[in-house]
Inverse folding.
């Protein structure tokens, strides 16, 4: 069973503008006014209340709206410890995946674009509902980047993140 909203508000305060939680009661390892929680190895803030850990972004949603999110909570800017209310939105698992950052092993510097060595062209593709969709092969990296950006807006809308690490 999850914690009651009244208990949450009794234990911590949430500042929607900064995204921080602070303690309202002094307990072991907790001092009134001090930041609540700590970072997980994955970069999210976790807060333990009544012996149970809660992700701060889900707790912020509950604290603000009085209900737990029905799916996942997406960090719009992709920063996992940025729990400002303006940076949080409900998302399906598929929408949350669409907003993922570019993979660290990407060598083109453009999300959804890779070099097809066998054809000597740039290849653009996008994941839509768990299936990889081929967007074509292109002579110029700019054209592949544009194809991905257009498809990201078409298929993912506000959750699209066609970020780039290089100037194209």
């Amino acid at each position: 069973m999850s914690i009651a909203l009244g208990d949450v508000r009794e234990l911590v305060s949430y500042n929607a503008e900064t995204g921080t939680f602070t303690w309202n009661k002094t307990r072991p390892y907790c001092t009134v006014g001090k930041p609540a929680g700590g970072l997980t190895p994955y970069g999210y803030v976790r807060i333990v209340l009544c012996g149970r850990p809660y992700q701060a972004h889900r707790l912020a949603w509950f604290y603000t709206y009085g209900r737990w999110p029905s799916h996942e909570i997406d960090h719009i800017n992709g920063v996992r410890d940025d729990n400002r209310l303006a940076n949080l939105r409900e998302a399906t698992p598929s929408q949350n995946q669409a907003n993922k950052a570019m993979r660290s092993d990407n060598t083109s510097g453009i999300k959804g674009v890779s070099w097809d060595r066998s054809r000597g062209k740039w290849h653009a593709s996008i994941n839509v509902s768990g299936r990889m969709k081929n967007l074509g092969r292109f002579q110029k990296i700019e054209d592949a980047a544009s194809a991905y950006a257009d498809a990201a807006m078409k298929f993912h809308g506000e959750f699209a993140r066609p970020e780039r690490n290089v100037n194209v």
In short: The chain is about 25% helix and 30% strand. The chain has a mean pLDDT of 91. The first strand starts at residue 12 and ends at 15. Strands lie at 12-15, 20-23, 38-39, 45-49, 52-55, 72-75, 88-91, 113-116, 121-128, 131-138.
